[in-house]
Design goal:
- The chain is mainly alpha-helical and 153 residues long.
- 42% of the residues lie in helices and 7% in strands.
- The chain has five helices and three strands.
- The protein has a three-stranded antiparallel beta sheet, covered by helices on one side.
- Helix 3 packs antiparallel against helix 4.
Length: 153
């Protein structure tokens, strides 16, 4: 299936309050669903159940585990200690990113580490549903960057 693993991982790890999303089995396109209406953001209703594969949000547990695992393999113990304190309590994701930003080389390593794991979870999810990803027609090197939207290398 031609699916954008970045989009699929976003649905899988999104906020469960949004209600997940759908993968169009004909095109591989991903759509976000609003929890209160059940509608895809781009306006199409998933009426043909044979065409759409529902994606339930798993939440941020895996992303949190990625932060923990990254901290565990850091060679810079001072940075590891600082990052370790950021992931306890409210705002953990934001604090982690803010502290990590002070070390651009480690920040790049983290984005690569995290992207590889998110894409791996998306591939596993597809395999669990008897699908295998193929390159998406809209795929480009610019979109495949491991940096979050709005950031560059």
């Amino acid at each position: 299936m031609p699916v954008d693993l970045e989009e699929l991982s976003g649905l899988l790890e999104g906020d469960p309050a949004w209600g997940g999303g759908w993968v169009d089995l004909n095109t591989g396109e991903c759509g976000l669903v609003t929890a209160d209406s059940g509608e895809l953001w781009h306006g199409d209703e998933p009426e043909d159940t044979g065409r759409w594969l529902h994606v339930a949000c798993a939440g941020s547990h895996d992303v949190y585990r990625d932060m923990e695992d990254f901290i565990a393999v850091l060679g810079d113990r001072s940075l590891a200690d600082a990052l370790g304190t950021t992931i306890t309590g409210r705002g953990a994701f934001r604090w982690f990113k803010d502290v990590l930003a002070a070390s651009p080389a480690e920040q790049r390593r983290y984005w690569l580490f995290n992207a590889e794991r998110r894409h791996g979870r998306a591939r596993t999810w597809l395999a669990d549903h008897d699908y295998r990803p193929t390159p998406h027609a809209g795929f480009s090197r610019a979109r495949s960057t491991p940096y979050p939207p709005g950031r560059s290398s």
